[in-house]
Amino acid sequence: MAASEPVLSPVELTRRRRAWAGWVRLGRLERGGLIVLALTTAVALLAPILAPNPPTTAMPAGSFAAPGTDGLLLGSDELARDLFSRVFYGIQASWLSALAVIASGVLIGGLIGTIAGIAGGWVDTALMRFTDLFLALPAAVLVIAVVAALGPSLPHTLVAVAIVWWPWYARIVRGEVRAQAVRSHVDAARLAGVGRMRLALRHLLPGAFPSVLVTASLDVGSLVLILAGLSFIGLGSPPPAPELGAMAARGMPYLFGHPWIPLAPAIAVFLLAFAANLAGDGLRDLLEDH
Amino acid sequence: MRFRRRAGGRGAARPRAERTTTAVLSLRCLAVSYPGGVQALRGVSLEVAPGEIVGLVGESGAGKTVLGLAALGLLPSSAEIDGHVFLGDTDMATATDEQRRVARKRFAGAVFQDPMTSLNPTMTVGRQVAEVTGSMAAAIEALERAHVPDAPRRVGQYPHELSGGLRQRVMIAMAVAGAPALIVADEPTTALDVTVQAEILRLLSELRDETGTSILFVTHDLAVAASLADRVVVLYGGRVAEVGPAAELLQQPDHPYTAGLLAAHPSPDSPRDRPLPALTGEPPDPRAHVDACPFAPRCPLVTPACEERLPQVTAAPSHAGLVACLRAGEPHTSLLQVQDPFPDQASTNGRPPALRLDDLTKAFGSRQSQHVAVNGLTLEVPAGGAVALVGESGCGKTTTLRMAVGLERPDSGTVEVGEGGRPQLVFQDAGASLTPWLSVGEHLEERLRAEGLAAPQRAERAREVLALVGLPISVLGLRARQLSGGQRQRVAIARAIAVPPALLACDEPISALDVSLAAVVLNLLSRLRAELGMAILFVTHDLSVARLMGDHVAVMHAGQIVEEGPPEAVLERPQHPQTQDLVAAIPRLRSA
């Protein structure tokens, strides 16, 4: 850049102050949501370090140990595994899977949306009809088909979900790019002699960031739920992988005798989705302030 | 201590004040602030007498719109109100929502800037007017009183089917339908053509004569206020700077700010070879707390005493009004001093024309419903010359400009551009022509990169260009929303001239600006034109601006040029009816 001053200008300071004011003005719930979002991501990434025991090893305390026995915070499951550690790893799997699906959606959808939005004409029409085609696929049936064809595994499920997820992002990005394209700053850039590629990347695409960011953050919660649901009906990793939906499903027979076994992963799914939705709301409010 | 309350709450904590005058609207020490420390009004006292038209003038941010909303009791609930606003006998500052609604219905009507957003797009205009008048027959009558032609047919139409001027007439019909004691009109003509503006002003004035309603007319244009109002109130930084009878105040202003606004206003007799005397500096920060005269930093008459305390509102020495200035009545000679002429223009002898448009046509829309925007237009801008293109909205002037700079391809005809940098365009809304997430430095850099300059030269040229348009280097890292309106316009101009273009096209660059800022921008363009020897094609709807900016004035109508010539000839001896209309519609500060 032409002039980046090391000392913050007064305007820069005001901007920071304003960002802080925006943060303060957020509701307590949304603020909590953003904090939880940061914490959850940290927990997910650090699960191997934070979890006290390996997720698939039988503990000396034996099967069906009640929460608190022998240092096992949430007790043990029917195969004597540490439930607390398994929930930890389950959160990691759910969270990172949701983020992976969204990342792929933003990437594929963003690319197709950008090309359609910038090219316009028949390219736009062709790409958007192609996108509509994918929007029409029934998600659950597609997942079952993929798993039936390729065998049950988390990556297969994720690929199937990603296939139905990206079209939304393609539509958002395309819409925002089209909206930017008719604004006079794009005409001004064109007159300044800015090339096509640069015009797209510097003057059109950044306009789509806020909407994509907000949609993506609100999607995390839905994806956590959808993936947990698929895993609950057996369309996730095969056992003994610690996955929240599958853990809840396999724990169901013990609901009355040892309720912690199905409830711990179920509550974790609930909290995860709730936190993700709060964080999405918080992010949206924060962006609307600008 | 002072009692404060939030609008929309109950005024239990406030002592009740009684109305003591016959005024239709009476403000007492009205102060309005918003969360975040914005003090929109800082103690305004004002009365509007029955049948009086009061023109409320000020720059953007002076608090004039807030005052209008306060009078109607329409301030958002986040606003903190101090003082009293009597509409009829209701104090809109302390009344409950219900009391305010009743007072509005009984006493007030409102006309806002954009009738498209104030009318309901899903209802016919007849039904909307009938909501106020009670019956469709009365609605037709109300529309006829607002001179809506063919009213019985119009009642069945939707707002989008009407022109801007007609929509504003519908709004006025609704505003006067309930026979209100007061009409608050907030910039009702700003979005309209000059000729339509003149008609609407005439209509408001007639309605006042017929019905005896009072009008609070909010505008940023002193000339518009002058042509309509009995009394003019000049607001500055949320306070009254000067109040007085319109004719006297404009003849002999006592506040240097009023004098400055008057001097900066382009008029049909401003000298063409020298800058308009523009006010320097920027309007005050609405968040800042000031104990001095708010105008002191921009005032040519400032004394140390001005910076010590707030000037009291006192009787004006030169007219039957009030003024808040320690040096009121002293001659403002320093404001009216003759400006140095623009520098001599760089020689352009022997160079081919900067722009030659030959028999251009351009149509939009499908084959079934075609709209011909430009229809066989021929125009030449000599090298280093300045041509002003004047016309009403929809006459095709913007399309012509876009074809001239290459943003639009003509259906037929040719566009030839002379030697020099590629033609550039200064847009009407400078803020929107800057990419919101890029900094000033990046904008300039990009323009220079396109010309193949190396990085060190780019950085150097960026600094030079900022100096040329009078901006400090420190704006390089800022984005559009961190700049003031005036700074944005300068940045847009800086980018346009970073590589001196063969032709600088300007699309109404001042129509959205305050008078003082407009003068600054016009001066800047004229000076740059002389210094850089570039040609200017200046599009405007205002003939007095066209005269100032163009050596040659071309009047456009329905996609064609209907009259052209030297500015004096066009303004003084207009031949074509369209030109005559435009000349007649120029708002004038002083009646001839």
Describe the fold and architecture.
- The complex is a heterodimer of chains A (290) and B (592).
- With 290 residues, chain A is mainly alpha-helical.
- Chain A has a domain at 94-288: MetI-like (MetI-like fold, Orthogonal Bundle).
- Chain A is built from eleven helices and no strands.
- In chain A, helix 2 crosses helix 11 (260-288) and helix 6 packs antiparallel against helix 9.
- Chain A starts with 9 loop residues before the first helix and ends with a helix.
- Chain B is of the alpha/beta class and 592 residues long.
- Chain B has three domains: 1-10 and 19-341, Rossmann fold; 355-423 and 501-585, P-loop containing nucleotide triphosphate hydrolases (Rossmann fold); 435-488, no CATH class.
- Chain B is 32% helix and 22% strand.
- In chain B, a hairpin with a 2-residue loop joins strand 10 (231-236) and strand 11 (239-245).
- The relative contact order of chain B is 0.10.
- The chains are: A mainly alpha (290), B alpha/beta (592).
- Chains A and B meet through helix 1, helix 7 and helix 8 of A and helix 14 and helix 15 of B.
Strand content of chain A: under 5%
Low-confidence stretches of chain B: 1-13
CATH topology descriptor of the largest domain in chain B: Rossmann fold
| Residue runs with pLDDT of under 50 for 5 or more positions of chain A | 1-13
- Which structural class best describes the helix and strand composition of chain A? mainly alpha
The count of domains of chain B is 3
Fourth-level CATH superfamily of the domain at 94-288 in chain A: MetI-like
What is the CATH class of the largest domain in chain B? Alpha Beta
- Structural Rg of chain B: 25 Å
Rounded average pLDDT of chain A: 82
Can you count the beta strands of chain B?
A: 22
- Strand adjacency order, main sheet of chain B: 7-8-9-4-10-11-13-12
Distance between the first and last residues' Cα of chain B: 52 Å
Give the amount of beta strand of chain B, in percent: 15-25%
| Radius of gyration of CA atoms of chain A, rounded to a whole number | 23 Å
Question: The biggest beta sheet of chain B, please?
Answer: 8 strands, mixed
Largest interface: A-B, 27 and 38 residues
CATH superfamily of the largest domain in chain B: P-loop containing nucleotide triphosphate hydrolases
